[in-house]
Specification:
By secondary structure, the chain is mainly alpha-helical. The chain has helices at residues 29-43, 45-71, 76-118, 124-164, 172-213, and strands at 20-21, 218-219. The chain has a single domain, classed as Four Helix Bundle (Hemerythrin (Met), subunit A), CATH 1.20.120.570. Strands 1-2 form a two-stranded antiparallel sheet.
């Protein structure tokens, strides 16, 4: 049996958290900011929804990969069939990532509107928190862009792998070399995913601090 392991990535990161307004404020700059920021959360609902199915697809693909490796090229027709199944899963993963990208793009558009509301905040402490919030979100969007590009590169290598399995004359050294490329790619994805998660968590915490400084009463 071929002794080689392929990296398993589980999902694409942390999600924004929403808050519910618990008191009436009137059409103040603070309320406008609250509504705009919570609209950003709603725009990322698709991103959140795609996480579980993406993880399930990754797990299923990994199971197929393990089955292929266990066969060790002894049953080429079976391997060919399994690799076709895996290619279909990679295609589905691409669709999930595209849906995530679209969700993040909508979120970014909504945050530009939120920035306009945040710029109207007059309270000095709240204004300072708002500026920090804008910086964190800018870094978060930048981080996601790098993550999505890296993940897409890794998926392209996955796709190439399953096409390699359809070659009856596939050499072990070529397979191992390609698996090494895949693992290197997913190592990068893992690092970028951690960065994205960190910015998301900091933003969620920063939003709470802004709400507190702006006297916006909310509950999770």
């Amino acid at each position: 049996m071929i002794k080689t392991n392929k990296w398993l990535m589980l999902g694409m990161g942390a999600v924004l958290t929403g808050s519910l307004l618990t008191g009436c404020m009137g059409a103040s700059p603070s309320e406008q900011a609250y509504e705009a920021l919570e609209n950003v959360v709603s725009k990322e609902s698709s991103f959140k929804e795609e996480q579980k199915p993406l993880i399930e697809l990754e797990k299923k693909e990994n199971e197929i990969y393990s089955e292929i490796i266990a066969l060790g090229m002894k049953d080429f027709e079976k391997i060919k069939s399994l690799s076709e199944d895996a290619l279909e899963i990679v295609k589905n993963r691409k669709e999930k990532i595209e849906a995530e990208r679209n969700s993040i793009e909508e979120s970014e558009k909504a945050f530009k509107e939120a920035e306009e509301a945040l710029n109207k905040i007059e309270n000095e402490k709240a204004s300072k928190e708002a500026e920090e919030l804008k910086k964190l979100m800018a870094e978060r969007y930048k981080s996601y862009d790098s993550l999505a590009k890296s993940y897409s590169t890794a998926m392209a290598l996955d796709e190439e792998l399953y096409k390699m399995f359809q070659n009856k004359d596939l050499k072990l050294k070529d397979l191992e070399a390609h698996i090494s490329k895949i693992n290197t790619a997913y190592d990068e994805v893992k690092e970028l995913n951690e960065d994205f998660n960190s910015y998301t968590e900091k933003y969620n915490a920063g939003k709470k601090e802004f709400y507190q400084a702006a006297d916006i009463n909310t509950e999770e």
